[in-house]
Amino acid sequence: MLASALIILAASLANAGPSQVNADVGFFDPTANGGSWLDNAGDGFGEPMNVVISGLSSPDVLTDDGIVNFAQAIGFSIECLDIHLGAPQSANLGDGNGFVNQTIELREDFGSAGIGTCLESLVGGDHFRVFRQNGSQANSGALFLAVSKEEDIFESHTIVPNGYNIGRDELVSAAVGTTSFNDVTYSTTSETLTGVMPAGTAGVNHNISIDGNAILLTVQID
Ligand SMILES: *[C@@H]1O[C@H](CO)[C@@H](O)[C@H](O)[C@H]1NC(C)=O
Ligand SMILES: *[C@@H]1O[C@H](CO)[C@@H](O)[C@H](O)[C@H]1NC(C)=O
Ligand SMILES: *[C@@H]1O[C@H](CO)[C@@H](O)[C@H](O)[C@H]1NC(C)=O
């Protein structure tokens, strides 16, 4: 009886996939409560939310101003002169809020906060949309980022081939370690959330294949 209980326990542990992750690691898996790791791009497809800023990060990182400052520390800025190419996207993070529009969109600034994002609009680069998991059913405070690498404006801001995986990996490389902006210094660690999304193109915007992984970043202000 004990043995079979242990076997059942072992089996359930073996099945403990990403849906087991919870607030202990700073976010809830959106699919555990009716949400998705893909946002809604408005055309029947979605972009992967392939980076999560853990809710266990310093609280000041998780505010709107805080994520903008952190983004600037890793080479992003707010959009150039409010030029918005494309409608806002929405996401259901399984927190009881249903679909909610992105709170903000940030673009790579090419080393010149302010002017740089204008350059990004012209020549392409990395950008990301931010969604906050703060509904009462999964109130982790984590930020889910849909990161991608785009073609230039002459290509109508489409995503480059493999642009979701590449954009994610470029952002993570820029973020991990010590960074600073406006006298705020960040220490950032990463962990791969393997296979939280199905690998491949199913449901993915622009028919671009993804590897199915997301990266969890924990950002501490020193
Ligand atoms: C998102 O914003 C657009 C444009 O402002 C609006 O039409 C749409 O209803 C919003 N969607 C959600 C889910 O709030
Ligand atoms: C949850 O996050 C959204 C989007 O940033 C924000 O508009 C809203 O005020 C937040 N809700 C609470 C209860 O903090
Ligand atoms: C998606 O791309 C694959 C090749 O990678 C192609 O076979 C398929 O037809 C494309 N699907 C759509 C809907 O464009």
Could you characterize what this model shows?
- Keywords: Signal.
- Residues 1-16 form the signal peptide.
- The chain is an alpha+beta fold and 222 residues long.
- It has helices at 2-14, 64-73, 116-123, 163-175, and strands spanning 51-53, 76-78, 90-92, 99-101, 104-108, 125-132, 143-150, 177-181, 184-193, 214-221.
- β3 and β4 form a beta hairpin.
- The radius of gyration is 18 Å and the shape is globular.
- One 2-acetamido-2-deoxy-beta-D-glucopyranose (NAG) is lined by residues 88, 90, 99, 101.
What is this entry, summarized?
The chain is α+β, with helices and mostly antiparallel strands. The protein contains four helices and ten strands. It has one domain (20-221).
Average pLDDT figure: 81
Structural class by helix and strand composition: alpha+beta
Multimeric status of the protein: single chain
Helix count from the secondary structure assignment: 4
Signal peptide: 1-16
Keywords: Signal
